[in-house]
UniProtKB/TrEMBL annotation:
Residues 38-316 form the Aminoacyl-transfer RNA synthetases class-II family profile domain. The lineage of its organism: Bacteria, Candidatus Lloydiibacteriota. One of its GO terms (molecular function) is proline-tRNA ligase activity. InterPro entries: aa-tRNA-synt_IIb, aa-tRNA-synth_II, aa-tRNA-synth_II/BPL/LPL, Anticodon-bd, Anticodon-bd_dom_sf, Pro-tRNA-ligase_IIa, Pro-tRNA_synthetase, ProRS_anticodon_short. GO terms for cellular component: cytosol. The keyword Cytoplasm does not apply. Pfam families: HGTP_anticodon (PF03129), tRNA-synt_2b (PF00587). Its EC number is 6.1.1.15. It comes from the Bacteria. This is Proline--tRNA ligase. Keywords: Aminoacyl-tRNA synthetase, ATP-binding, Ligase, Nucleotide-binding, Protein biosynthesis.
C-alpha cells in the first residue's frame, strides 16, 4: 500500500472527550473514527487489524470443531419474549417497525441459535455440536467511555455448544479454555481465567478471561504464584490474602479487561423453547448448552492499551495491519526512490504486507513519528546512506533496536 494513497492521515490531537489511550492512539493514527460514544467506524488500518484478530479466532474455533455461521442481526422480538429476556435484559435495543412489529438487533444470539439447533439436533448422535459467528453486536450500554473497549456497537465472536451431559460440557469447556488462551497468546497478550461459581441460586457458571490493563473496567484478585484469579466483585477474599489454591502465593489486586467469557447455560434455553432430543435410552432429554464469547473489538482495544508506548501503537506481528513499514527518505533522489521501489516490489512478490511511505515533501522526522504512531512491527529505511553502505537500516518497533542488513539478508527473512 502506498502511503500517499492511504485513505487516512495521522493527526496530532485526539478528540478532547476521549480519555482512554486506546481511543486516543487509534484515532490519531487513523485506525478508527468516532461516530458517537460507543460507536466507531473502522478505517483501512483498523479493519486490517480486525481481520487479523478474526482470523486467529476463526482458526482456533475451527480447530476445536466450531462451525462458522452468520445468524441474523435483525431479529424478531418473539423468541426474546419467550425466554423472558425482552423485559429482563436492560441492554436490548428495541425497534418499532412502521408495520407495528417489534424487532431487536442482536446483543447476543441464544434466542436465535436455540430454535435453529432444535431443527437439526434430533438424537444423541447429533451431539455434541458447536456453532459460532463473528460479527456486530448492539447493546444499550449506559457508560461507553472506554474507547473501543466498550461499544454500543462492537464485534464479538459468539459460539454456542450443545451437549448430552454435564461431563461432556466440562470436557468441551476445558478444550475451549485452552483455545481461548491460545487466541490471547497469539494476539500478544497474557490472559488470566477467573473461575467463579455462580452460586446456588443460579445454574450459571461463568469463566472470565481477563487481561491486566489499567484501562480495564474489572477489578480482579490474582495469585502471584499460581494461575488462580477471581473477580473482586464476587468474592469475600481480599488483597494480600493467602492463595487458597496453591497455599504459596498471596493475592494481588489489579484492573483488568474481560476479553472473553464462557457461560454454562445449563438447560435454560432448550427448556424455554421445548428443545429436546432422544437420548441413548430413547427418552426425550434437554441438551446442556454453553455460550462462549470473545470481544473482538475489545481485544483490539486491549492490545492498543497494553502494548503501546509514548510514541504510539505497537502491534505484535500477528495482528499488525502491515508487517513492514518501508520508508523512503530523499524521495527526490532518483536512485533512492528506485531502490525503494524495487525493494517494495520484491517484498510484495514474497507475499509480505507492506505500507510504503513514498510521500514527497514530508520530512524524515514526520515520517518516523507517523511510523511510531501507526506501530507496524518492522521499519525498513531507504536513504542516501543505503546507497553508500549497500545496506538497509531496519528498526524493530517494539524494542527500538535497529540493525543494518543487506538486501539479500532482508528478503531472506520473509522467504
Ligand atoms: P461486560 O461485563 O464487560 O459488560 P459481558 O459479561 O456483558 O461483558 P458477554 O455478554 O459475556 O460480556 O460478551 C462476551 C464478550 O464480549 C465479553 O467478554 C467482552 O470481551 C465482549 N463485550 C461485551 N460487551 C462489550 C461491549 N459493550 N463492547 C465491547 N466488547 C464487549
Ligand atoms: Mg455487559
Amino acid at each position: 500500500m502506498l502511503q500517499s494513497q492511504l485513505f487516512t492521515k495521522t493527526r496530532k490531537e485526539a478528540p478532547k472527550d476521549e480519555v482512554t489511550t486506546n481511543a486516543q492512539l487509534l484515532i490519531r493514527a487513523g485506525f478508527v473514527h468516532k461516530e458517537m460514544a460507543g460507536s466507531y467506524s473502522y478505517l483501512p488500518l483498523g479493519r486490517r487489524v480486525l481481520l487479523q484478530i478474526e482470523s486467529i479466532v476463526r482458526d482456533e474455533m475451527d480447530r476445536i470443531g466450531g462451525q462458522e455461521v452468520r445468524m441474523a442481526t435483525l431479529q424478531p422480538s418473539e423468541p426474546w419474549k419467550q425466554t423472558g429476556a425482552w423485559d429482563k435484559v436492560d441492554v436490548i435495543f428495541k425497534i418499532n417497525s412502521r408495520t407495528e412489529k417489534e424487532y431487536t438487533i442482536g446483543q447476543s444470539a441464544e434466542e436465535i441459535v436455540t430454535p435453529i439447533a432444535q431443527e437439526y439436533v434430533r438424537s444423541y448422535k447429533d451431539l455434541p455440536v458447536a456453532v459460532y459467528q463473528i460479527g456486530q453486536k448492539y447493546r444499550d450500554e449506559l457508560r461507553a467511555k472506554s474507547g473501543i473497549m466498550r461499544g454500543r456497537e462492537f464485534s464479538m465472536k459468539d459460539m454456542y455448544s450443545f451437549h448430552e451431559t454435564q461431563e461432556d460440557f466440562d470436557r468441551f469447556y476445558a478444550i475451549a479454555k485452552e483455545a481461548y488462551l491460545k487466541v490471547y497468546k497469539r494476539c500478544g497478550l497474557v490472559a488470566k481465567v477467573t473461575e467463579a461459581s455462580g452460586g446456588s441460586f443460579t445454574e450459571k457458571l461463568s469463566y472470565e478471561f481477563m487481561v491486566l490493563t489499567g484501562a480495564g473496567e474489572d477489578d480482579i484478585l490474582y495469585c502471584d504464584a499460581c494461575s488462580y484469579c477471581v473477580n473482586a466483585e464476587i468474592t469475600k477474599q481480599q488483597e494480600a490474602d493467602a492463595c487458597t489454591r496453591c497455599n504459596k502465593g498471596t493475592l494481588a489486586r489489579a484492573k483488568a479487561s474481560e476479553v472473553g467469557n464462557i457461560f454454562d447455560l445449563g438447560i435454560k434455553y432448550p427448556k424455554d423453547f421445548g428443545f429436546t432430543y432422544k437420548n441413548k435410552e430413547g427418552e426425550d432429554a434437554y441438551p446442556i448448552m454453553g455460550c462462549f464469547g470473545i470481544g473482538i473489538t475489545r481485544l483490539m482495544g486491549v492490545i492498543a492499551e497494553a502494548l503501546s508506548d509514548d510514541g504510539g501503537l505497537v502491534w505484535p506481528e500477528s495482528v499488525a495491519p502491515y508487517r513492514v513499514h518501508l520508508i523512503s527518505l530523499a524521495t527526490d533522489d532518483l536512485e533512492v526512490s528506485s531502490t525503494a521501489n524495487l525493494l517494495y516490489d520484491a517484498l510484495l512478490d514474497l507475499g509480505v504486507d507492506v505500507l510504503y511511505d513514498e510521500r514527497k515533501g514530508v520530512s524524515a522526522g514526520e515520517k518516523f513519528n507517523d511510523s511510531d504512531l501507526i506501530g507496524i512491527p518492522l521499519r525498513v529505511i531507504v536513504s542516501k546512506k543505503t546507497l553508500a553502505e549497500g545496506k538497509f537500516e531496519i528498526k524493530h518497533r517494539a524494542s527500538g533496536e535497529s540493525e543494518w542488513v543487506s538486501r539479500e539478508d532482508l528478503l531472506a527473512r520473509f522467504v
